[in-house]
Design goal:
2 domains; DNA polymerase, domain 1; Rossmann fold; seven-stranded mixed beta sheet; 307 residues; alpha/beta
């Protein structure tokens, strides 16, 4: 078990599959560079890499490991105006998004992502803006319900939101124990790591506007790619994967007219093709060696030739 001070480096998920998708790429954006596992392998494959991360600690770690040769670095959320401008100027032929959090972030109690006892309710990837404690203590009940239902897939979202509001009226939420106790009050004493992980993940997604950022970035990244460029996304949450799947499917569909019309009236044109008809998932060996890979889904889209 991690002590919270571990310096274990994050094992890049689906690395072989990402490298295969980027086999011909020479200008690559790793928009969630983390510790640089994917970025380093992509550079070794012959690409110039723009590495982006909102977490200053992660970016510093990656830069210390990889140096500056063949690398350009940017600290920013990948969906921010600064990042989108940098990506467009870079003229990439491959963009990678590896969503979620890294092992180092989870292992660091100071970052507040874990449900280990006594950990502060922070969860901010970029160390700025409202924390998880702020959301739990300040959001209206209806917004808490939405987070629990939509981001944590919690069937008892209404009851849990009411319990959070009831508890914060007596004492503010400060540590992981406060949220764990609220979860157990609603789901029962047998609630364990699976439930905690799911609900903590839901609040992490809300704190970092992860689904909103993904929705904003996907179309911008597609436009930034050069002809025949590829966009690859590794997601770990059903909401993330659904957004990616729907976007890629829409971009690869020419006609968007309602079914039943005798002729096409939308004038639609597909902007590219699906490289992966179904999401690529980790094999048994990788899942056993790297538990984080078990929920990973990789989807790849390729933009059309020019014209």
């Amino acid at each position: 078990m991690s002590t919270g001070n571990a310096q274990t480096l994050h094992e890049p998920v689906l690395l072989a599959e990402v490298l295969a998708a980027a086999a011909e790429a020479r200008r690559v954006v790793d928009a969630t560079v983390g510790h640089g596992g994917h970025a380093g392998a992509l550079r070794a494959q012959g690409a110039e890499v723009l590495g982006i991360d909102r977490d200053p600690d992660a970016l510093a770690t990656a830069r210390a490991r990889l140096g500056d040769a063949g690398m350009t670095w940017l600290q920013a959320p990948y969906a921010s105006p600064a990042a989108l401008e940098a990506v467009t100027a870079f003229r990439p032929d491959f963009i990678l998004l590896d969503l979620g959090v890294s092992s180092r972030q989870l292992d660091s109690d100071a970052r507040g992502f874990s449900f280990r006892p006594g950990v502060a309710l922070d969860m901010r990837m970029g160390c700025t803006g409202p924390s998880a404690a702020d959301l739990l203590n300040e959001l209206p009940e209806a917004e808490l319900v939405a987070i629990l239902r939509d981001y944590a897939d919690e069937r008892r979202a209404v009851a849990m939101a009411k319990e959070i509001v009831r508890r914060r009226e007596r004492r503010p939420f400060v540590s992981s124990d406060d949220l764990v106790n609220a979860i157990r009050a609603v789901l029962g004493a047998r609630a364990g790591p699976g439930e905690f992980a799911r609900i903590f993940q839901g609040f992490r997604i809300a704190v970092n506007d992860e689904l909103g950022g993904l929705a904003r970035a996907l179309a911008a990244f597609r436009v930034a790619l050069v002809p025949r460029g590829r966009l690859a996304v590794i997601s770990y949450h059903s909401g993330e994967d659904r957004l990616v799947k729907q976007a890629f499917r829409a971009w690869s569909t020419a006609c968007t007219c309602p079914p039943g019309l005798p002729v096409c009236i939308c004038g639609g044109k597909a902007t590219g093709t699906l490289v992966t008809r179904r999401a690529i998932v980790a094999g048994d060996a990788e899942s056993a060696a790297n538990p984080r890979a078990r929920s990973a889904h990789l989807r790849v889209f390729q933009v059309n030739d020019e014209g």
